[in-house]
Amino acid sequence: MTTDTTTTGATPNTTGTTILDARGVTMRFGGLTAVNNVDLTVSSGEIVGLIGPNGAGKTTFFNCLTGLYIPTEGEVRYKNRVLPAKSFKVTAAGIARTFQNIRLFSNMTVLENVLVGRHTRTKEGFWSAVLRGPGFHKAEKASRERALELLEFVGLSAKADHLARNLPYGEQRKLEIARALASEPGLLLLDEPTAGMNPQETRATEELVFAIRDQGIAVLVIEHDMRFIFNLCDRVAVLVQGQKLVEGDSATVQGDERVIAAYLGEPLENDPGAAEAAEVEAAEAAADTTTDTAAGKENDR
Ligand SMILES: Nc1ncnc2c1ncn2[C@@H]1O[C@H](COP(=O)(O)OP(=O)(O)OP(=O)(O)O)[C@@H](O)[C@H]1O
Ligand SMILES: [Mg+2]
Fold it and tell me: 136 CA to middle of ligand 1, Å?
């Protein structure tokens, strides 16, 4: 498989300014290079997709963008400033995320989960909270109003007092989005937001992401549901074995034979493994014929 990186199709949204600028990001775990020299930008007003087979390094790349991992090499800038190396500082800087494996406070209510998401935006400090003075009560009221507004936005206001653990899976994902939005981000990273959703919930999530973008928040989204990605994204980057294979608009990426090969596992022309794969296939076909024949004889008896 060739791994040369090409940017094809429509040029990325040139109307917005670049807010996220990841350059040469590499993440190694011992001998394994999970992310290999990846460049990626996101501009304001853009929805960018990140796709790739299981284990391609997508979540690891997100972790490098959010201060969970410090990249082995490379640099990530958000609004022209190098990202701090702590995740809560990254959130405060304006990047929020959801997780592939939902991370909610399951024994807290839906509203409380969103309020937790607001803490990076609340200026009231420790003593203010302990003493519960007028400043604290005013800030608390404002936070509560904003949290309820966000629950309305994602369609969960009727369940504000429910425990998070009692929500169906699709609604837990929505709650994660509301909690991420509570930090008032400029860029939202979504890691498989429709995993486990039915088709209706997936369509609703698509609309939700458009609505988030319309509020001036750029979105970078990982997803395996290709229809969702290609409907939604202005630009799509494909990671394969840690490297960015292709980047372009939906139509271009969808038709790129290297992407099709990466997903379907079809050997490419001149692929060094193609001859071996063909031999294995031929051997398997021969074995099938033998078995069929034997079974046929068995049946004939
Ligand atoms: N903390 C870690 N320590 C060691 N290896 C890791 C760690 N995190 C991820 N990896 C490895 O890095 C590679 C990329 O994993 P990652 O989770 O980023 O893939 P992904 O593209 O998100 O896959 P999926 O679509 O299945 O979520 C995998 O081989 C994985 O086992
Ligand atoms: Mg992942």
Answer: 42
Instruction: Name the residue at shortest CA distance from atom 31 of ligand 1.
Output: 55
- Give the residue, by CA position, lying nearest to ligand 1 atom 4: 29
Euclidean distance between the first and the last CA atom of the chain, given in angstroms as a whole number: 48
Domain limits for position 82: 1-86+185-289
pLDDT in tens, the chain (301 residues): 334 444 444 444 445 899 999 999 999 999 999 999 999 999 999 999 999 999 999 999 999 999 999 999 999 999 999 998 888 899 999 999 999 988 899 999 999 999 988 876 665 555 555 666 666 677 778 889 999 999 999 999 999 999 999 999 999 999 999 999 999 999 999 999 999 889 999 999 999 999 999 999 999 999 999 999 999 999 999 999 999 999 999 989 988 888 888 876 644 444 444 555 566 667 667 765 544 444 433 333 3
Same domain as 53, residue 117:
no
Here the CATH number for the domain that contains residue 174 is: 3.40.50.300
What's the CA-to-centroid distance between 195 and ligand 2, angstroms? 11
Question: Is there a contact between 187 and 218 (Cβ–Cβ < 8 Å)?
Answer: yes
Q: Which of 125, 159, 184 is the last residue of a domain?
A: 184
Closest-CA residue to 57 (of 41, 71, 44): 71
